[in-house]
Amino acid sequence: MTTTEIIRKNLFPNPNFSPTGLTHGLWGMQYVECFPGDGTLTVPEKDPNGTTTAQKQGYVQLDISGLLDADTEYVLSVIRLSGTKLCGIYYNNQGITVTPADHGDLLTLRFTPSRIHDPSSLMVNFDTGVWTRPIIEPAATYDAAMAGGGLRFFAWDTMPDPRSAS
What we know:
This protein is mainly beta. It has a single domain, classed as Jelly Rolls. It has 3 helices and 8 strands. It has helices spanning 53-57, 139-147, 155-158; strands at 40-43, 59-63, 74-83, 87-91, 94-98, 106-111, 123-127, 129-138. It has a 4-stranded antiparallel beta sheet with strand order 1-8-3-6. A 4-stranded antiparallel beta sheet has the order 2-7-4-5. The longest helix has 9 residues, at 139-147. The relative contact order is 0.22.
């Protein structure tokens, strides 16, 4: 029996939700209070009198325009720890949203940027709640990993990243 190795690459910017990852430029600095530094994204409930962008909106947006190949199908996957059950891909104030099944908190959404009316305004929205372990990857590698019993982790999730060594 032979084993096929599936190389998976997470295209999600700052998947550990690190406050220092805001310097990547895709996350706005207005969301810094949503990154507690523990690997989660914490989105506050909407409050029109709030003092931060996330409080006033009740959601957090990540601009992924230009990150993805227009004709490739992708899978967005994220785990909801608490809060609302809504996450989605938005463009021009329209969107494709997903809620997890009643028995789980894993949200998985398939999309192809070229099938969206305006892929130049592609956003990932996270509604009120606590989120962790986001993944955006080509559907082909996601499907192959899931069909072959692949795991839902990537190399640097389980061992130290040698690039961050001092």
